[in-house]
Predict the 3D structure of the following.
Amino acid sequence: MLPEIMEQASTEIQAPNPNPSRTLNDLPDEILIQILSLIPTLEAIHNSLVSRQWRSLWSRLPFLDFSYHLFPVNDAEPLPVTSHRFAEFVDRALILRPNSPIKTFRLSFIFYYYYTSHVDSWVRSAVTRFRAREVDLDFFIDKEYHLRSEEDRAPRDKYDFPFSVLRNGCVESLRLTYVDLALPASMATVGMSSVRSMFLEDVDLTDQMWERLILGCPNLEYLELRNGGVDQNLRICSKSLKKLKFGYFYDCYYKNSVEIDCPNLVSLSFDCISFTQFRLKNAPSLVEFHLNMVHLDKYYDCWSKAVKLLGSAPNVKCANVQNWWFKLLTSKDSFPKTFTLHNLSLLELRTGYTQYDLVGMAAVLELCPNLETMILDYLRKIEVDESLPEEILNKPVRFNMPRLKQVKMLKFFGSEDENNFVTLLKKQGLVLQKITLFPIKVEGNSCHQYPPIVLRRNP
């Protein structure tokens, strides 16, 4: 705690100083504010009480951070009682704070429907009184708070975030977790022009509401959607959007599609998703593509559909995917013959180094004639490799890498498969300049990282 730090610091300062009365109170307010800025608002207020000189400092901090999980609790106290005390604390803190602008308003809270007026007031204060540029509301925190108990039988509702309040503020970054959105009917015409970045997790909207939300933010540049709900066809259409991320849309399997029409989109990322159809329209600016799926055979179909989006993005230069590429040779769902990653210069590939993996690596290298850098990260497999046809298994692996100059092998364990792969690279890399290995050793529950080993081509 800060009082203990203050006591220690005071002792250290007093020892060499001829003035025995010198303390932290002699430091400029700007430095004291920097110290208080390192801790949440609750602790900042508590520590401000140690000195009369400090009492107003917390109200000059450039942020307000009300973290429910840091609030002192009594183990025997039911969750609703803790929530009530927390709400009273936030109410009081906001009343006492002057109306000066802040950069960030952050709140984590276990919401019950009867706190709606409280939270509405907090949000209005953050947006209109304090002119916060960043607003972060988390009403989930952790699953342990959502386990029901005998003492906690009140309904756990989602908070209806009043999106229209943003009209009266200058919020640039909005993060919302476990909420419903109350969108104004005139969303598309009025617009929230200040919002440039939006993160939404556990937010369920109809397809029409998703479209209204995006159209209502004409300057939105960053959008991340995690674990959200979709009716049937999620359509992301924006002329301003530059970075788009999807994460954990598992419930979409067998029924939902996503269509992306963003002409200025630079980066597109999918992490653990299960849409049945993917459509990418008008993506001339897309240069970064990331795809991560649980490495189970049942998800390959979704993986292949997402990867095929690259056929509609000819200017992609950097791609991060896992190694399922051997299926290009064995799957009935073949890729178009015209499919190629002609402009790809950097490939980050999550892979193993078995024969199965090397065949896949050779397949993707055939599609990347201008690849210059390849970064390989270890892929932990859940299922065993499927059997390869004999004609593929017995055929020597040949890597086509006419422009590949650099390979990095992250998490290098030194296995026989890894060493065989390095030997292949050295033999077949015509212009390969260096291979960098990042050795790692696992002992029990500990993991040791060793200095990189650089293998260079002999002059």
